[in-house]
Amino acid sequence: MSEDTWLVVGLGNPGPRYEGNRHNVGAMVALELARRAGVSLRAHKAGARAESLRLGGAQGTPGARAVVAVPTSYMNVSGGPVKALASFFSVSTEQLVVVHDELDIPFGEVRLKRGGGEGGHNGLRSISSSFGTKDYLRVRVGIGRPPGRMDPADFVLRDFAKTEREELPFLLDTAADAVELVVERGLTDAQQVVHAPRG
What we know:
This protein has a single domain (about 5-195), classed as 3-Layer(aba) Sandwich (Rossmann fold). The chain contains six helices and seven strands; from the N terminus they run βαβββαββαβααα. The protein has helices at about 25-35, 80-90, 120-130, 150-155, 160-185, 185-195, and strands at about 5-10, 40-45, 50-55, 65-70, 95-100, 110-115, 135-140. Strands 2-3-4-1-5-7-6 form a seven-stranded mixed beta sheet, with helices on both faces. A hairpin with a 3-residue loop joins β2 and β3 (about 50-55). It is globular, with a radius of gyration of 16 Å. GO terms for molecular function: peptidyl-tRNA hydrolase activity; tRNA binding.
């Protein structure tokens, strides 16, 4: 593929046991992007489900060429499949977008950044290790902090609460929009839109 191809990876753990977990919200966003494009993610030899599609595109324009993927490995070894996908599709780290859950952002909010720390997120740590850099784009989907003294590791591996599930489609929509914006308009412009206060 040409060098203008983007790789958008939604992080999560494989299998039905985990699919409703907060930790899997990145994978949920990837599936929403595939749904919008009218495609299904298919098994890929890199150890992921993936599909080529066009992201965004308005007023009849085709949108950006992208591969959307969800690793089929466990979260803490996501880096291997993501690196393999980037190699297979000839995607540079400059055009790698990782969508993941973020404890330090309130539920329902989305934030964009390039690089920075992993905040204890094992998926990000694995990807940074595999690529030898932290300098890739992140779409950070807020899940909020655990209540009381609950261990964050337990919190992320639980399904969204009933009230959160009612709001979840809106959050996935916002995060999918954010992915399309960052690919179409670049990080700075996308941040101005996504980070703007909601009235």
